Batch of 2 targets.
Target 1
Amino acid sequence: FKEDEVRLDQVLLDAWRETERINRNHHMVLTDLPRVWIYGDRDRLKQLALILLENATKYTPKGGTIQLSLKTNSQSAEFRVSDSGIGISETDLPRVFERFYRVDKARHRGQDPGGTGLGLPIAKWIVDQHHGDIWMESKLGEGTHAVVRLPLSEDNSTS
Ligand code: ATP
Ligand code: MG
């Protein structure tokens, strides 16, 4: 685990641009990202964002919307990857961070994009390394927010 001062907004923007390059099927909506430093590992934070953006892409039908936003307060930064996709039911929601857990593929109507069920467990592990929190908010058939909250580094006060 390589710890550094990291511009979270820049890391998110990197992951966003990478996703945008390979995703021609969705409306990609980026809101203004405030400048914020956190203490952590740049590569892993980018991997975290890519995992969430990949899920939003995979579980949102063509023509849907994917959005990234970031906000901060004096203690933490919170970003969310939101999608207008298939959503997650209340019964599945508590289990998506379990290793190899994947929601029943029947709901994809034979269009299961595939996967191993390791993206979110890895995302959770990265967030834990950064002493943060991650959770999903979702409504079946409407969409999902993947939310990550990370503690700020002290440098934000001097910027
Ligand atoms: P992998 O990420 O390993 O390729 P995966 O995407 O199936 O496979 P996770 O990223 O861990 O695995 O997600 C677990 C499950 O949670 C998914 O299989 C899917 O059913 C559900 N899920 C995750 N993100 C979303 C989302 N944005 N919208 C709807 N369902 C989701
Ligand atoms: Mg995944």
Target 2
Amino acid sequence: PDPSISEDLLAAGRKAYDVDREHVFHSWSAQRTITPMTVVKTEGPYVWDGQGHRLIDFSCQLINTNIGHSHPRVVAAIQEQAADIATINPAHVNAARSEAARLVADLTPGDLDHVFFTNAGADAVEHAVRMARVHTGRPKVLSAYRAYHGGTDLAFALTADPRRNPVDKATAGVAHFMPAYPYRSYFHSTTEEEESERALAHLEQTILLEGPQSIAAVILESVPGTAGIYVPPAGYLQGVRELTRKHGILFIADEVMVGFGRTGEWFAVNHWGVEPDLLTFAKGVNSGYVPLGGVAISCAVYETFAETPYPGGLTYSGHPLACAAAVATLNAMQDEGMVTNAARLGEEIIGPRLREIFEAHPSVGDVRGLGAFWAVELVKNRETKEPMAAYGGSSPEMNELVAECKKLGLLPFQNMNRIHVAPPLNAPDEVVRQGLDILDQALAVTDRYVTG
Ligand code: PMP
């Protein structure tokens, strides 16, 4: 245990654990089977577990604490705002929301000049789709398989990962298409160029078969996160932009996970110069210190609701505490150059080290990413690409790898057969290097299960 963690803190953590197991209902879990990790302290790029061990946080929790834990400027802004105006009817102007909206409008690409604030990512997606449906007068929305858009009903229907199946009511107006995923190409492509061309041809076929005149929007994660951080091949997002424009369909870029610097650009669409009609955000907008999400809206969509009311609202649309945290976060990110730092971390440290790790470990099938957003995809066999955990679940092998990382001092983000490397954008270089060294060491665990 870290000597800075007192016995009182550890005792409080043990008590919290017992009460949690008695009363807390956990997301995505078979309640009685889980042994969740207790966190007793967070600071910068670190968290401390229930035994008082310090772990490097390569998960940024759910990839939201982009500026690290407990950033003093953001903490102070929340405290000051709480003492001033803690909460207010969203119909009233509040200074924190006005300034947060101005910053978001300035930072987002194109003419996304108006901002509707929500509580988080899923409701941002719900509202973006509603705007698109009213704007176009069309009912359908297309989303990609291997995507994550949120846990509310419509957002979960758009989320084409297998977890939705038990509750999938085939929500009216949702259809799916295959994504561009070079490592496991659905189109039998052997090059990125081929993958981009074939995935676009498939999307156009889907649009034509569903009927362009019935489709309000195509929603896509600019870089799909939860489902694997698979960076789209060159030309793909531009192609989606052209196709949607050609058919009068809106393009919604879901930047809930990648927005605000994660990939080394303020928004991931900027890597490809693409301007969506609607852009959803959450997480990084205020590093998750207070729940906040939103939709950045183009001028054309804004006009639809300029003289006719928008059918929707939220008690906490632009909550002062959340918006004060956003203003402080975005100012700190700009002042401290965190977005360019994320790009540098990817180019100079994470990318090169992960390529070494790929060379050294037969259980690593692929490494890919941008900025401070990388995936290590684990396989039992590099030839067959048999995943170390089946799609939709974990496996004893992956659980063992995560346990080994934690034992060695790293909190990784694991999903299915992947470890995601997503440190804070301002993590010191030596902390990122240490985390990668730990991952390198821990991968001896999965190497033992390689069969080919
Ligand atoms: N969209 C994307 C791309 C996400 O990554 C997430 C959350 N992981 C969501 C939407 C949903 O956000 P929330 O959990 O804040 O509702």
